[in-house]
Write a structure and sequence with these properties.
The structure holds two protein chains of two kinds.
Chain A: H1 17-33, E1 48-53, H2 59-70, E2 74-79, H3 91-99, E3 105-110, H4 115-120, E4 126-132, H5 138-152, E5 159-163, H6 170-181, E6 185-189, E7 205-207, H7 210-216, E8 219-222, H8 238-245, H9 249-253, E9 260-262, H10 275-278, H11 285-306
Parallel strand pairs in A: 1-2, 1-3, 3-4, 5-6, 5-8, 6-7, 8-9
Chain B: E1 2-7, H1 9-27, E2 33-38, H2 42-57, E3 63-66, E4 97-105, H3 109-119, E5 126-135, E6 147-152, E7 159-163, E8 172-177
Parallel strand pairs in B: 2-3, 2-4, 4-5, 5-6
Antiparallel strand pairs in B: 1-8, 7-8
Classes of the chains: A alpha/beta, B alpha/beta.
Chain lengths: ~300, ~180
Amino acid sequence: MSKLSQKHLLGIKDITREDIELIFETADNFKQVINRPIKKVPSLRDVTIANVFFENSTRTRLSFELAQKRLSADVINFSASNSSVKKGETLLDTVNNILAMKVDMIVMRHASAGAPHFLSRHIKANIVNAGDGTHEHPTQALLDAYSIREKLGSVTGKKIAIIGDILHSRVALSNIFALQKLGAKVMVCAPPTLLPKFLDQLGVLIEYDVKKALDWCDVANVLRIQLERQHIKYFPSLREYSLYYGINKKMLDNLKKEIVLMHPGPINRGVELSSDAADSSHSIILDQVENGVAVRMAVLYLLAGAA
Amino acid sequence: MQKKLILDSDLLDITLSRLCQQLIENHKDFAETVIIGLQPRGVLLAEIIHQKLEKILRKSIPLGLLDTTFHRDDYRRREIPVKATETRIPFVIEGKNVVLVDDVLFTGRTVRAALDAMISFGRPEKVELLVLIDRKYNRDLPIAPDYVGKIVNTLASQKVLVELEEKGNNNKIWLINKD
């Protein structure tokens, strides 16, 4: 197997375990490339990629852009805030205009769930979903699972607790799919108001007590409270959330074992994670960022080959 | 499918010893020379030659492996892409004499990619190419080996199969006719 089963990366739901393993093996090689004196390979020099962001992002966009440049692809960036979208252009028109300039691949973030899936039915270019609403964020899940594999040797059989705002998180759903496909046990932990209704269909454990979740898990993936998506009050105050669901160094030190602490960023320091926990030796948050570039290189490289 | 034996185990051993002697002739004590095997099939050959050289010279010689996948010029042009493998060059190649090692030299495209990939690690003083089998009339690029085990005249439709084993007393090289 040296080819992906799909020509787009729309969500982890659509890809197979073999696809994920191929992406990881390829990422191993790219991680080695980005640690060389010359951090660049010419693989995609005849490929043009458009980063189309209808929603704000710093980390993901930088990571994608760096991955594209390290593969020698030509890159154009588009953000909706200063574009014709404001003048009323439709999504399909915007993207078709970009494609008319001979673009081979689209990396898209959109506030609506399913936007990249809709696009994939209408255009020929390869599409990478860089986050669609509260639905999926496949490259984040891949880099999270890759970081666990790197730290613990394997994902299979490991216990992973996803703690925080599950309801508004596309990272949570993609992570659940990816980890389950790789044979891990997944638990989610949040106040009942921040858990989506469909969770019982996904076969994950549900826990409301963060201390019990930490006791159970090998890896805690802590998610940000997404205040920008919360239009009603889901908990009384940030202070109260932090008191009941925030994780600090003392809680980690009191555990009878070493656990790995992850966060997809940006961190709300003092809310879901205290500073001393985020900067502790348990944390692999910055490894996640480094691995993000290698994993995205692997995804772009393999999708270009699948065309 | 017809198979014809080009080199058997005994003859191959003599050939490998001769290649080692030629290398020593040009590189003396290997003070400024490193050996790099090309993934995937040049690696085992490089290891065998490296082992023989270290035995003769009684000193350690740097050995690396180089994967050329990301530097190939046929990516997105062939049906099934080549799968990437490990690159490991645990030494500095800047200013060194590099001997690239591969089993079969055919079109020369892998060697072109290897030259490109190698430059990412620095600027060597000099680069040489050692191959076990040179399929002479099949080159697409102006690339010639410096050390050759055996020159074989082949048709493009034929295949050369190199069977090497690590401890190998059963090494064989075959010429295969595809029907």
